[in-house]
User: What shape does this take?
Amino acid sequence: MLGTIVNVLAVLVGGSLGLILNKRLPERFVKIFFQIIGLFTLFLGISMALKTSHVMHMIIALVTGGLIGEGLGIDRWFERWGNILKKKIKTGNERFTEGLLTAFLLYCMGSLTILGAIEEGMGGSPRLLLIKSLMDGVSSIALASGLGIGVLFSAVPLLIYQGGLTLLTMGLGDFVPQLFITELSAVGGVLLIGLGINILEIKKINVMNMLPALVMIILLLWLIPDFAF
Assistant: This one.
């Protein structure tokens, strides 16, 4: 798990630099940082989503996943957990939970996360995750400068999610169909589009409640893999 460990350290170092810069940068610089990140997130999400070859699977996964997430109240649970953590570390940052969620989605929804974790889990080089570490480290500087210390705490779910994928791949061996990787990244791309819209403050989209779609797309592809549209 060398790649994931380096990735986590990059987020922590970049986020720490962002917190230092936050006290020195004028508000207009922080604002332009967010506009750039929002636009890039939209671009990344669209490019990932367009790679799907199973549009109906994607739509059904997003609808059912969103309904499940809404029913479970994932956003409310995450908000409560974020507030508890915020009280534990005694921070007055009002955007703590937003920073944690935004950073987690941005760091974990990309294809580099899945492909890099699988490549390293199969005994290959961690080169993809090392490239991702550089990108995440730079992004965390801008994110932490605007959203605060919550960005640093995103390193915990990053370690669990990305490291978990690596360990899972080690256990499964070569049994990871390319189709699963592509379609999982495509659904993640749709979630990133929603995140980009949130960052740009165009409209508030409840991306957190759509997370079960990542599980639903795998389930649908496993049950009906040959139905492509």
